[in-house]
Amino acid sequence: MSAVRWAIGLVLAGLVGWFAVDEARGTGDGAQARSSLTIIAPAAAGGGWDLVAREMQQALRTDGIVGNVQVVNVPGAAGTIGLSQLARMTGDPTTIMVTGTVMVGGIGMSDSSTTLTVVTPVSRLAEDFEVIAVPSDSELETFEDVVEAWQEDPTMPIGGGSAGGIDHMIAAQLAEATGVGAGELHYTPHAGGGELTLSLLSDASGTVDVGISGYNDFRDLIDGGRLRAVAVVAPEPLEGVDAPTMIDLGYSEVDMVNWRGIVAAPGITDEERDELLDIVEEMTQTTSWDEAIERNRWEESWQGPDDFRDFLVGEQERIDAILEELGLS
How confident is the model at residue 310 (pLDDT cuts 50, 70, 90)? Predict the structure, then answer.
């Protein structure tokens, strides 16, 4: 695809996202977040951000915290199209967006002046961990097999999500740690976990044999025996996942964590921000959310607005440095 067609595609995706969010916001009748709340998932349905948004929607509805909760998907450019839409909703107290490590990487990879500093931090919620997987019938039975095959053929494609996202950064870190070299990495980006798993399970030309993604993108296929996890990028083994950690394998420098957080539109008042914070905090105390944390193998990592704001500044600096070091920016 040419650069012009790619740019046109991003513009069209942005327009579709804008109309979807604008419609979900309603008629501007002054309804506040307790009565009507829109959650932007800045990715296609079925991915990690969408999962967080849907789990939030379920918890908020089940426990009656918010009267009406809508999820709107605004996919594209590692979440930065969704971010640009939210950044234009100045003063809107009824819309929030899921964010995370992938978006920070997307910002670092782009020339956009729209960063997470322009929106309103609400809270950090949890951490989500990455899994390296192969088809269950693959000759690559262990992570050591993957490394050996990769070292023999550095052109072996490694599949994952958006370019510059956490999957890409982990692949580059792995390439450096295993001696393949980030400059030799042949990374194949996919629009989401669904597209990646289809590629992994296909024998067609141009598909991949090794994939990196969030655990929940692979969970059903791992449980169903169609994919095999060969490693997890997490500080501790994931319960129910029979795969070693990077630390177990001797690659402690491969340590990217995919955190999840919530931001709101710019220009809202402190009182409106606090109301959104109360809504999210009440949600995290529900049985529905506890079940979501356990089911999705997330780890809670709560931060309020001030700490989250400081975290976002430091995280952007950290990710920018990693992208530059790995030659991805």
Answer: very high
What is the rounded distance in angstroms from the CA atom of residue 307 to the CA atom of residue 142? 40
- Report the C-alpha gap between 151 and 200 in whole angstroms: 20
What percent helix, strand, coil does the chain show, rounded to 5?
A: 45, 20, 35
Q: Are residues 103 and 10 in the same domain?
A: yes
Within-domain flag for 250 = no
Tell me, yes or no, whether 92 and 17 share the same domain. yes
Domain that holds residue 309: 3-128+259-325
Contact 170, 256 (CB under 8 A): yes
CATH number at residue 93: 3.40.190.150
* Measured distance CA(48)–CA(113) in Å, rounded: 25
Whether 253 is covered by a domain: the verdict is no
Are the beta carbons of 273 and 94 closer than 8 angstroms? no
Statement to judge: residues 56 and 159 lie in one domain: no
pLDDT tens sequence across 214-224:
998 899 999 99
- pLDDT tens per residue across span 121-161: 999 999 999 999 999 999 999 999 999 999 999 999 999 98
pLDDT (tens digit, 9 = 90+) per residue, 268-303? 999 999 999 999 999 999 999 999 999 999 999 999
What's the whole-model pTM score?
0.84
What are the DSSP calls for 210-269, one per residue? EEEEEHHHHHHHHHTTSEEEEEEESSSPPTT----BTTTTT-TT----EEEEEEE-TT--
- Counted domains in the chain: 2
